[in-house]
C-alpha cells in the first residue's frame, strides 16, 4: 500500500510539475507538404527506425499538413514480415489516445501488437500521431515554444487532424479505410461522425474504450484534477504545453519499477483502473516512449466534460468569447444521436475501466439504440481496464481477433 501511494504521488508530480519543466527541442526549417517553410523538431529517431524496422517490417515515414498548419507524422506499414503484398490491402488507420502517440500500437511484441497483427493479416496499416506529440511538432509558421502553437483542444483534432489523416490515407491507398481509435481517438471520431464528417472515405470503425460522456469517470486522479481546476491553474500560470514527460521523473519511475518486488503496472492503475492483463515488463517499454505532450487547453476541455457530463465544444466561460467563436453564448453540443445508423461499428469496453466508465459508455450506447442491428457489434470484458486494450498480453485473443474478423466482413 505504501508503494502504491508513493507511485500515485509521483504521478501527481508528473502531471502538475512535469508540465512546467518540459524540455525544449532543437528546431530547423524544413519544407512542409505544401512546400511552405516550416518549423519542425529534429527527433533523434523515428517510429519506423526505432519500433518497426527493428522487428523486420518495411516501414514508411509520411508527413501530413493540416488546414491550420500543423505538420503531422504518420507511419505506414505496407506489408508483413514476409514482404509480400497479396493484392490490394485494405487500409487501416490507428489513432491513439490522450498523452500518447502512434507507438501505442507497437508496445507489445510483434505477435501481440495490433499494428503488426493487422499487417500480418493482410491490411495496409497507418499510424497517426496527434499534434504536439514527439513526432508531430512541426508547423508551417509556429514553433512549439510559442503560445499560439498550443492554442487548441480536441475540437481542432476533430476539425483538422482527423480529416487530414483520413484524406491522406484514402488518397494514398485509393480506397476507403477502416479506423481504430483508443480512448481520445474514439471521442474525436464520434464527434466527427456526429457531424457527418469523413463518412465518404470510411469503411468501418472500431472503438476501443469508447469515450463520449465523461461525467461518471471513476479515475480518482482525473476526477480530482477536474474538480480542483488543476489544468486551469496551469493555464493561468502560463503553461500552455501539458508535458508529463520530465526526464528526472521518468528516471525516478524507472528506478522504482526496477526494484525487486515492485509491480509497476500499479503505476497505470490510478489513471486507468485495475488492468487485468499487463506484464510488469511492459511498463518499462511504456516509459521509454510515453507519455507525450498535449495542450493544456485540451486538458481543460476534458475537465469541462467531466464536470458538466456533456459532449460540447470548448467553453471559453465567457459569453462574448463563445459568441465570437460559435455565434452563440454557450458551446455547441456534439449530438451522438445524429451518427448515421448504418455506419459499421465495433465497440469494445471493459468493466474495470476508470476512464471509459461503464455508466458513461452505456449513455453512449443509449444514443446508438436505433443503430442498424447488423452494423453494430458490442463487446464487453468485465476484467478489462483502459490499458489492457493496447498493452494486454491476451488482447490478441480477447479483442484483436474479433476486431479483424469484423473488418473482414465490411
Give an overview of the whole structure:
There is one protein chain. The protein is α/β, with parallel strands linked by helices and 410 residues long. The protein has a single domain (47-409), classed as 3-Layer(aba) Sandwich (Rossmann fold). 37% of the residues lie in helices and 16% in strands. The strands form three sheets. Strands 3, 4, 5, 6, 7, 8, 9, 12 and 13 form a nine-stranded mixed β-sheet that branches. The protein has a two-stranded antiparallel ribbon with strand order 1-2. The longest helix has 20 residues, at 154-173. The radius of gyration is 20 Å and the shape is globular. The termini are far apart. Keywords: Hydrolase, Lipid degradation, Lipid metabolism, Signal.
In short:
Residues 49-107 form the Partial AB-hydrolase lipase domain. This is Lipase. The protein has one domain (47-409): Alpha/Beta hydrolase fold, catalytic domain (Rossmann fold, 3-Layer(aba) Sandwich), CATH 3.40.50.1820.
What is the fold-level CATH name, i.e. the topology?
Rossmann fold
User: What value does the Rg take, in angstroms?
Assistant: 20 Å
Proportion in β-strands: 15-25%
Query: Which stretches are poorly predicted, pLDDT < 50 over at least 5 residues?
Result: 1-10, 12-37
Largest sheet: 9 strands, mixed
What would you call the shape? globular
Query: Structural class of the secondary structure composition?
Result: alpha/beta
Quickly count the helices: 15
N to C succession of SSEs:
HEEHEEEHEEHEHEHHEHHHEHHEHEHH
Kindly state the number of beta strands: 13
Number of domains: 1
If classified by CATH, what would the architecture be? 3-Layer(aba) Sandwich
CATH superfamily: Alpha/Beta hydrolase fold, catalytic domain
- Between the first and last Cα atoms, what is the distance in angstroms? 48 Å
Helix content: 25-40%
CATH C-level name: Alpha Beta
Q: How confident overall, as mean pLDDT?
A: 87
